[in-house]
Amino acid sequence: MSSVVQIAPPNIKLSTLPIDQTRGFWGVYWLIATESMLFVSMFGAYYYLGNNKDRWAIEKPPGLVYPFVLLAILVSSSIVLHWGELQVLKNSFRAGRIALWITVLLGLVFLVIQGFEYATEWKDITPDSDAYGSIFYTITTLHAAHVIVGILLLMFVGIFPRYGIMRRSPHRPYQVVARYWHFVDAVWFFIVGLLYCVPHLLSHYHGH
């Protein structure tokens, strides 16, 4: 029994066949969806642990200065990277590359400042101090790991000889990596709200 193999007609070149230009975007969107579920699970664990007051035992919430400074850095990085995307669409590749490397620098600054935050908070909050300390470091280090991955992806795109929209390139690396970076930035909004602001509000409420 012979099998039939379909091939392109001899008068059609493979290089002229259409390419799905959204393939790269769909890949990163599915990745973002998967990672979103991971963070949703972590936030769910945070909520679950918070209901067990005997193990929660948080007395002094972490300070608000560091998380808001870090938030400002990430928001600034997203603005810079988005501007770089617009430059790439205009074929201003040099400006786009500069914006990309500035974003990398801001990401590294984020990690350094977060290290200072850990050094400061470690005096009062450690992973084994209580349930809050455990989930606090779990979620924030998980996010830091995503920031590191984003930086590596940005650096990889930054060394590409070309990364704009080319006719035969379905991946559009600059735009695809930018989507991931914006997602990482958005997650930090939820972290600041749930892990920092809510404990401060509850502490203020119970204090009165």
Structural features, described:
This protein has 208 residues and is mainly α. The protein has a single domain, classed as Cytochrome c oxidase, subunit III, four-helix bundle (Four Helix Bundle (Hemerythrin (Met), subunit A)), CATH 1.20.120.80. Helix content is 72%, strand content 0%. Helix 1 (23-50) packs antiparallel against helix 5 (131-158), helix 3 (65-89) packs antiparallel against helix 6 and helix 5 runs antiparallel to helix 6 (173-207). The protein is elongated and about 60 Å long.
Q: What attributes does this structure have?
A:
208 residues, mainly alpha, Four Helix Bundle (Hemerythrin (Met), subunit A), 6 helices, disordered N terminus
Layout of helices and strands:
Elements: H1 23-50, H2 53-56, H3 65-89, H4 93-121, H5 131-158, H6 173-207
Helix pairs in contact: 1-5, 1-6, 3-4, 3-6, 4-5, 5-6
Report a brief summary of the structure:
With 208 residues, the chain is mainly alpha-helical.
Which blocks of ≥5 consecutive residues have pLDDT under 50? 1-8, 166-170
Continuous helix count: 6
**Annotated CATH homologous superfamily:** Cytochrome c oxidase, subunit III, four-helix bundle
Q: Report strand %.
A: under 5%
Termini separation: 83 Å
| CATH fold assignment | Four Helix Bundle (Hemerythrin (Met), subunit A)
**From the helix content, strand content and strand pairing, which structural class follows?**
mainly alpha
Task: Describe the main β-sheet briefly.
Answer: none
CATH class descriptor: Mainly Alpha
Task: Supply Rg.
Answer: 22 Å
